[in-house]
Amino acid sequence: MEASATTILTPDVTGTQGRNVTSVEKPAIILVPWDPDSPDHVERMRLQRVACGWKQDGAESWRPLQREGKIGLHWIVLAPAHPDTAPRLAAHKAQFPSETTPLRDTSRSILGRPHAVHPDIAAAENNFVPVGHISLDGWHADPSLHTSAADGVYSLTTFYVSQAMQGVGIGGAAVAECERMAVDDFGAKTMTLDTISNEDVAVDSPRRIALNRPIQKVTNQDWYMRRGYKAYQRRPNSWFDTDATGKEWWCTAVCLRKGLV
Ligand SMILES: CC(C)(COP(=O)(O)OP(=O)(O)OC[C@H]1O[C@@H](n2cnc3c(N)ncnc32)[C@H](O)[C@@H]1OP(=O)(O)O)[C@@H](O)C(=O)NCCC(=O)NCCS
């Protein structure tokens, strides 16, 4: 990955060089591939999925998909040169003491291509402490996302930013970097994803109330729509969560897409 690719914070409504991806302002994050053959990477992913609360046991099933280059699960790493990195990393380590040991960048390939260690990670002797993760996938089991590397349709999945620094732009920078990588490195034309629908997280949603979920400042669906994603399909009964009484609450997912070029 090129150093210039890692730095995106401010949306550019005019597009960048004719592309519908966000512009580069200053380095915030670096994406480092998750190594499916490293027990340390697998265990850290398990810890972060537990902290996230969804797909807590997913890591085992992602290992072969990552090896085969079908999915591109990446760690979100704070860029060493960014002025806010030190305090943000300190806050993450304080809140998640089991996540303080650095991992090593040991992946050999990602999405079917050889992986080159980022110069800033190499300067730290290949060590890094991830503060989240995001997957850029060229394959997905659910046909409603239309994911197909051959057709230039990639999908964002498995996305989490440390609760020690949500709302400061890290997630937006990670999505923007995935969009840039998809276009520049893999010739993508379209990005798709799915997320919980606005109705199921609304203030008066019986599901939200029964599951005791907090009222979000910005819903996941709106978060993506503010970044240029448009809803194209609703998917009722996508998954369920169980409330304290044992009742299952199914949710409606919404599929969103964004043209990248
Ligand atoms: C969704 C998530 C990945 C976003 O990452 P993030 O780093 O918090 O996002 P950013 O800081 O880049 O986004 C800032 C936006 O969130 C809003 N925001 C404000 N406070 C926030 C808070 N406490 N938490 C999250 N977002 C907040 C801001 O208003 C801002 O909106 P705008 O940029 O559209 O005006 C992250 O909140 C997360 O990991 N959530 C739990 C897991 C999850 O929901 N994953 C996505 C599944 S589809």
From TrEMBL:
What high-level taxonomic lineage is stated for the organism? Eukaryota, Fungi, Dikarya, Ascomycota, Pezizomycotina
Domain N-acetyltransferase span(s) in chain numbering: 111-202
Please give the name of this protein. N-acetyltransferase domain-containing protein
The superkingdom listed in its UniProt entry is: Eukaryota
Cited Pfam families: Acetyltransf_1
